[in-house]
Amino acid sequence: MDRKIDEQGAVIGAVEVLLNGPEALRWRQLSLTADEDEVRKQFNESLREILPQGVSGEAEHSEGMDSGSGGLSAAIKASGPLGTVTGKRILLPAFFFSSSSTTQFVAETNRTIPVDLHYVQPGIDDVIYYLPAGFSMESAPQPAQIPAPEHAVLVTKTTSAPGVIDIKHIFAWIFVLMDAKQYPELPAYYQKMATSGQQQLVLSHDSTPATE
Q1: How far apart (Å, rounded) are the C-alpha atoms in residues 49 and 44?
Q2: CA angle (176 as vertex; 117, 196 as ends), nearest 5
Q3: Residue 156 CA: distances (Å) to CA of 7, 35, 120, 142
Q4: Which one of 3, 93, 98, 185 is separated from 194 by 20 to 30 angstroms, measured CA to CA?
Q5: Domain 83-212 falls in which CATH fold?
Q6: Strand 152-161 and strand 89-93: pairing?
Q7: Domain map of the chain by residue range?
Q8: In this predicted model, what pLDDT tens digit does every residue of 158-212 receive, in sequence order?
């Protein structure tokens, strides 16, 4: 996604959502039983679950819906208040689609049946921020890997150039079923995922006075 941030922390930009495997199949199956307007309506509603609070999105067009295989893509126009302004700083969620991550499984202390993920599909949250004039990056997530040996991996990458910051948050499970005996490993890992997803990008205004 490419998004432009203004001085009040609001965002406007283009989002491309790519779906593969069973998730793409689910929308293709819906398109066989519902008209285009209904599919678009349900897809727009589903965006509320993945977009940051305060940001709205609407699908402008999609590709691959009529295909029987391959990926499905949708072009989204997203806008709304994203960051918080504090003095000369703007605080933003570092990961656009991952900022809504929540801790899961914490209500269960024990489990007697296997954990079923239904299907394995990697998630890639890649956003390019275009900074407002006069602002620069003060802090951002550091490159990191959070592995769950033989089960999952979460990777963070940050690169920057004047006026532009690219942040990637990549997650992948590498199993479908987990034995109930291994369940105690999940709550701690999901806590790490949720904590990682709440990291911030801090922009600061360059208040250095101009010299003649």
Answers
A1: 10
A2: 65
A3: 26, 39, 20, 7
A4: 3
A5: Jelly Rolls (2.60.120)
A6: unpaired
A7: 1-82, 83-212
A8: 999 999 999 999 988 887 888 888 888 888 888 888 888 889 999 999 865 444 4
Residue 161 identity (one-letter amino acid)? A
**Amino acid at the residue 16:** E
What pTM was computed for the model? 0.79
Q: How far is CA 180 from CA 29, 89, 105, 112, in A?
A: 33, 46, 13, 6
Give the side-chain half-sphere CA count within 13 A for 74: 21
Asked if 132 and 205 touch (Cβ cutoff 8 Å), the reply is no
Give the integer Cα–Cα distance in Å for 84 and 65. Answer: 37
Helices marked H in the chain — which ranges? 21-33, 36-46, 185-197
